[in-house]
Specification:
226 residues, mainly alpha, Four Helix Bundle (Hemerythrin (Met), subunit A), 8 helices, 73% helix, binds ligand LH5YIG7M, binds ligand L45E5XJ5, binds magnesium ion, PIP_synthase_PgsA1
């Protein structure tokens, strides 16, 4: 959703940053790896130690590097296939770390099974949503969009965590529920997104045709049936 509404506007701000980093001699791959490493480090230290507000702020700053690497790739005349795989793989690692850090907080600070369940649903679906897209593309199909894409997921989890952290600092009782509301909303919307992407593939032309039998190892990597 945000990728449709926000990409053009954010690109205007990010493009000069990308240009400056390329001019400074940095490569997009370095920025991808740096942003991911820093996001993971923040997620697995600040969230588990109970610093939800600062965790959300610091992670929000570092996940923005995921926009900068693409801007740098475009500045250099276009991305590489390796860069695209590195970018997508690093996104999965960062998303996993953010939800794992929050799950740790849910267990050891909140002792909340409900928040743990919602967070684990988000952890799994965050990977599955993107995997569905990648696997569809490997089959020559497309499974994009849906209710929750990565930018939506990050804004919801970071806003929910940040607000609950803020409530803790200022003793605002009713706001402490923000992370619960955010994670359950995200869990439900993410499950819907998995089905939306599968339906998109199912309804694509030729998607349900039987795969041609091959004599050698099949393109899909499956063992041959004849
Ligand atoms: C008191 C409370 C405090 C709380 C503070 C936190 C609030 C949180 C607010 C903002 C946090 C920023 C989060 C947004 C970061 C977005 C980064 C991002 O991931 O963008 C994703 C997307 C590009 O994706 P990629 O192509 O790089 O990766 C693809 C993605 O992983 C796909 O996953 P899927 O979507 O399918 O699940 C994979 O399938 C695919 O393979 C992979 O390639 O970027 C966009 O979509 C662009 C639009 C993003 C719009 C973001 C809006 C953010 C809002 C505010 C940011 C302000 C910007 C200011 C810039 C200042 C810079 C100096
Ligand atoms: N290390 C990288 C990172 C990204 N790319 C290219 O950018 C695309 C992603 O752009 P975003 O603005 O959405 O981040 C990606 O698909 C690659 O084409 C790259 O080449 N190297
Ligand atoms: Mg990127
Ligand atoms: Mg990315």
């Amino acid at each position: 959703m945000l990728s449709v509404l926000g990409r053009a506007a954010v690109s205007k701000v990010i493009a000069p940053v990308g240009r400056a980093l390329v001019a400074a001699g940095l490569s997009p791959d370095v920025v991808t790896v740096f942003g991911t490493t820093a996001s993971v480090a923040a997620a697995v230290t600040l969230f588990p130690s109970g610093h939800l507000f600062w965790g959300a702020i610091v992670i929000a700053a570092f996940v923005l590097f995921d926009l900068v690497d693409g801007a740098m790739a475009r500045e250099r005349g276009g991305g590489t296939r390796y860069g695209a795989v590195l970018d997508a793989t690093c996104d999965r690692i960062a998303d996993g770390a953010i939800f794992a850090g929050l799950a740790w907080w849910a267990v050891y600070h909140e002792n909340s099974r409900s928040l743990l369940v919602a967070t684990l649903i988000c952890l799994v679906t965050s990977q599955v949503i993107s995997y569905a897209k990648a696997r569809a593309e490997a089959s020559g199909l497309s499974a994009e969009g849906g209710l929750i894409e990565r930018s939506d997921r990050l804004v919801i989890v970071l806003l929910g965590s940040g607000l609950t952290g803020l409530a803790g600092h200022f003793g605002i009782d009713w706001l402490e529920w923000a992370v619960y509301v955010a994670m359950w909303l995200l869990a439900v919307a993410s499950v819907i997104t998995v089905f939306q992407r599968l339906l998109q593939v199912r309804n694509a032309e030729g998607a349900r045709d039987p795969l041609p039998k091959k004599s050698g190892i099949a393109e899909s990597g499956e063992a041959p049936t004849t």
